[in-house]
């Protein structure tokens, strides 16, 4: 049976935009865009893996937030379990060490680039959750009564 590889990926958000990086020539899925991250090493939690990968690939230090969603995807030659975590706190200047391009996209721009297929359901889920959060916070503020005097 084909081995399933565990991969952790980061949904890095800044000012309502999400970070994407392009896989470089020579790699599996070269030219497609992905969330930064990588394969779990033995004994590593997904959070530890992500913190390590973000430092190795992008030169940033990050606090890994909650699991947004996961997706099992079969690429034929290999199958992966891709786990996406939210990252809102990070420091350092982004440097492309392992990718050949990067960009920041608003939620309504996510479909303007070509993502690795395994990422698409995860990004859809993230969009859904973010829109739900915006909706619930605006309904809370509508319900708040402010009185004069
Ligand atoms: N990091 C990352 N990998 C992804 C994403 N989506 C996706 O399908 N993958 C796949 O997950 C696998 C693991 O990623 P990796 O970055 O550790 O692998 P790699 O190909 O650079 O390393 P390798 O050359 O040592 O095999 C790759 O086959 C990659 O194509 C994603 O959003 N982020």
TrEMBL record:
PROSITE patterns: NUDIX (PS51462), NUDIX_BOX (PS00893). Signal peptide: none annotated. Coiled coil: none annotated. It catalyses: 8-oxo-dGTP + H2O = 8-oxo-dGMP + diphosphate + H(+); 8-oxo-GTP + H2O = 8-oxo-GMP + diphosphate + H(+). Belongs to the Nudix hydrolase family. Keywords: DNA damage, DNA repair, DNA replication, Hydrolase, Magnesium, Metal-binding, Mutator protein. The keyword Metal-binding applies. It is an enzyme of class 3 (hydrolase). This is 8-oxo-dGTP diphosphatase. NCBIfam families: mutt. Its cofactor is Mg(2+). Residues 2-128 form the Nudix hydrolase domain. InterPro entries: Mutator_MutT, MutT-like, Nudix_hydrolase, NUDIX_hydrolase-like_dom_sf, NUDIX_hydrolase_CS, NUDIX_hydrolase_dom. Its EC number is 3.6.1.55. Transmembrane segments: none annotated. The keyword Magnesium applies.
């Amino acid at each position: 049976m084909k081995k399933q590889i565990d991969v952790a990926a980061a949904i890095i958000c800044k000012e309502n935009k999400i970070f994407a990086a392009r896989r470089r020539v020579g790699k599996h899925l070269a030219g497609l865009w992905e969330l930064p991250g990588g394969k779990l090493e033995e004994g590593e939690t997904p959070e530890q893996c992500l913190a390590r990968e973000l430092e190795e690939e992008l030169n940033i230090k990050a606090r890994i937030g909650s699991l947004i969603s996961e997706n099992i995807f079969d690429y034929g030659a290999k199958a992966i379990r891709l786990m996406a975590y939210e990252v809102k706190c990070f420091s350092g200047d982004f440097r492309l060490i392992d990718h050949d391009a990067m960009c920041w996209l608003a939620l309504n721009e996510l479909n303007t680039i070509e993502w690795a297929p395994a990422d698409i359901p995860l990004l859809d889920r993230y969009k859904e959750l973010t829109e739900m959060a915006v909706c619930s916070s605006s309904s809370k503020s509508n319900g708040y009564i402010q009185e004069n005097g």
